[in-house]
Amino acid sequence: MLDPRKLHLLRELSRRGTIAAVAEAVTFTPSAVSQQLSALEREAGVRLLERTGRTVSLTAAGHVLVEHAHAVLEQLERASAALAAARGGPCGPLRIGAFPTAARVLLPPALTALTGAHPGLVPMVSEIDPADVSAALRAGELDVALVHEYDFVPPPADASIETEPLFREAMYLTVRASVAAARDDAWITNKPGTLCHAMTIRACQAAGFEPDVRHHVDDFDTVLAFAAAGQGVALVPRLAATAPPPGVRLTRLPLARRTLAAFRRGNGDHPAIRAAVTAFHTAVPHLPLDDSA
After folding, report:
1. 47-81: per-residue pLDDT in tens?
2. Which of 23, 46, 72, 227 is deepest in the core (most CB within 10 A)?
3. In angstroms, how far is CA 41 from the centroid of its own chain?
């Protein structure tokens, strides 16, 4: 019988690429991860890993088993959700991840609605970049999260994660009337590795140039303050531009950011997850969004 916990480690190895990265993600030692994967090979009766020095890669059989691991772990999530529903209404801790704009604008009314409808739930919120959400959900560090995706930046594929759309908002450019008009300007972007940074770079590339990035700033209020101080131009989403500082002109662009709820595949019907997503939807009509975004 194959052990689901070992299947989880194999799936993580397929995504992270090294034993050390898997160990860090699951808070095991590298030797413990290696031992568990060796035990999984014995249970499977076939080689799953190809070891060359310190490098480890999946064999063809390993890749086949990872595909089955997705299905097995999804069914276990469905079983957990069904048992939770059988126990009654949602209760207990609910770990919610959110990027800063959503945490500031969407979560306060959503949490009010959630705890009002389900007083037995204990929401626990952590700010997290959407690029890190999949790993946190798979590791069980989060139960549900608010993530975003941009035009020009397709969401990363992860067969273990499901998403549900919540809302769409327009993107705005500070100072200039178009991205092309900002070709010779200094730019302010989020840190490299974030979806926001990738969106800015690709929007500029689509306009035919590489941006001169001078500042890497994650907080959009600070981005707008820099723009007001003449330190560069930036792309900002609607919810981050509700009260721009004096002197900052904003031009709406034909670009958008979409916010979604994310959770482990198979776990969407868990009473606590469904209650949270319902609360997110309840809060959306109260957001200052453009009607035609």
Report:
1. 999 887 777 889 999 999 988 888 888 888 888 88
2. 227
3. 32
The span from the CA of 67 to the CA of 211, in Å, is 40
Reading the block at residue 70, the tokens are 């997705």
- For 95, residues 6+ apart whose C-beta sits below 8 A from its C-beta are 124, 126, 141, 142, 143, 144
Question: In angstroms, rounded to a whole number, what is the distance separating the alpha carbons of residues 209 and 10?
Answer: 41
CA distance readout (Å), 191 to 110, 194, 213, 252, 261: 28, 6, 10, 23, 23
Instruction: Kindly report, residue by residue over 198-249, the tens digit of the pLDDT.
Output: 999 999 999 999 999 999 999 999 999 999 999 999 999 999 988 899 989 9
**Domains in the chain with CATH codes:** 4-84 (1.10.10.10), 90-293 (3.40.190.290)
Residues 133/142, Cβ–Cβ less than 8 Å: yes
pLDDT < 50 positions in the chain:
293
Distance CA 283, CA 287 (A): 7
What span, in angstroms and rounded, lies between the C-alpha atoms of 227 and 88?
51
Q: How far apart are CA 206 and CA 183, in angstroms?
A: 12
Encoding tokens for residue 260? 């979604």
Please choose, from the candidates 112, 116, 120, 137, the residue with its C-alpha nearest in 3D space to the C-alpha of residue 84: 120
Tokens of 265: 């595949």
pTM of the model: 0.83
Query: Are the C-beta atoms of 73 and 4 separated by less than 8 Å?
Result: yes
With beta carbons less than 8 A apart as the criterion, state whether 283 and 113 touch. Answer: yes
Question: Measured on CA atoms in the order 9, 15, 16, 17, is the torsion positive or negative?
Answer: positive
Q: Could you give the angle at the alpha carbon of 115 between the alpha carbons of 113 and 121, nearest 5°?
A: 140
Q: Long-range contacts for 47-52 (Cβ within 8 Å, ≥24 apart)?
A: 48/10, 49/13
